[in-house]
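Format notes (please read before filing issues)

Several people have asked whether sequences and structure tokens are stored in separate files. They are not. Every record keeps both together, in the order shown below: the sequence lines, then the token lines. Line labels are part of the format and must not be stripped during preprocessing.
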Amino acid sequence: MVANYAISNGMFLISTNFQLKKIHIGTWTSPDHQTINQIDHVIVSKEKMRLIHDVRSKRGYNCGSDHFLVQIKIKQKLITVNNRQTQKYKWDRQILNQKEKINKYQEKIQSKLQEIEEETDINQDWQNLKQVTSEAAREFKLSKDAKNANRRWDDEWKSAIQEENEARGKCLIRKTRTNLDINHQKRIKANRICRRKKKEWIEGKIKEIN
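Then the structure lines:
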């Protein structure tokens, strides 16, 4: 069916074009864990075939599925663009409720603005104001790094995911009934922890808004 679709549209199954080891060919495991077939393919046009340098399945990654992750290596020349982005910060709402810190923060902004010479360019004035408010917020710890705003990924979550991955790795090496049962139990445990942590994180966000 996939081959007929590719032929009718003038495309090619590039995933069958590389000589690989057997462990890198199969993309799907049967429910009895005994049969592995290549049922996931990469289809490209004739013009794009030269861009694909390798297609193989990666069994080590835990996708939570009976399908393996398919890795595609593409070599494409890209135009380099210098895009300098400033670091983003997020306001800490709990500290914003402390009036003493807010008053000191406002005084710090006023003192910093008085040190800056008045500009005739409105854009420069805006940049100065933005810089002063950001520096004062970091000084009084009113803001935090936006990249680290998500605190769900704690040690308990990491440990559960690591145990699940280790159990899955043993199943890939030796598919015994004991290893399959252990992997199943570790997966259930990790899923429960993930759901609980997500629920706690959502409830915390709702409390911050209220």
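For reference, the curators noted about this record: The two ends are 54 Å apart (CA to CA). Residues 90 and 144 are 5 Å apart (CA to CA).
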